[in-house]
Design goal:
44% helix; 5-stranded parallel beta sheet; alpha/beta; 120 residues
Length: 120
C-alpha cells in the first residue's frame, strides 16, 4: 500500500483529499503546516507528498526547499495542490523538481489520475 502525505492548512481540503485517496486504498497521513510535514518526514516513509503552496508561517515553496535540502527524503516526489496560479510560483516549483501541479478546486478523477501517474 502506497503512503501519501497531504499538507494543507485548510482542514476541509485535508478531509477531501483523504476521502478521495482512501477510496483507492492509499494510506494517507495529513499535516496542517510545513513544519508538521518536515517532522512527519523524519519518522515516516512516504511515497508521495501533496503540498499546498499558500500556508502561513512556512509556505509550500519553503517547505519544498527544506525537503530538497535533506538527503533522507529529497527524492520523494512532490505534487503541488494549490489555488495559486502565479507564474513565479510555477517557475520556482519547476526549479525545485516537483512531480506535478493540481489547481484547486480540482475534480476528483483528474486529481486521482495525476496521483496515480506519479506513483506508477
Amino acid at each position: 500500500m502506497k503512503t501519501i502525505l497531504v499538507v494543507d492548512d485548510d482542514a476541509m481540503n485535508l478531509k477531501m483529499a483523504r476521502f478521495i485517496l482512501e477510496q483507492r486504498n492509499y494510506f494517507v497521513i495529513t499535516a496542517s503546516s510545513g513544519m508538521e510535514c518536515l517532522t512527519i518526514l523524519q519518522s515516516k516513509f512516504v511515497d508521495l507528498i501533496l503540498l499546498d503552496v499558500e500556508m502561513p508561517v512556512m509556505n509550500g515553496i519553503k517547505t519544498l526547499e527544506c525537503i530538497r535540502e535533506n538527503k533522507e527524503f529529497n527524492s520523494i516526489p512532490v505534487m503541488f495542490l494549490t489555488a495559486d496560479a502565479n507564474e513565479d510560483t510555477v517557475i520556482m516549483a519547476g526549479k525545485l523538481s516537483i512531480a506535478g501541479y493540481v489547481k484547486k478546486p480540482y475534480m476528483p478523477q483528474d486529481f486521482l489520475e495525476r496521483v496515480e501517474k506519479i506513483l506508477n
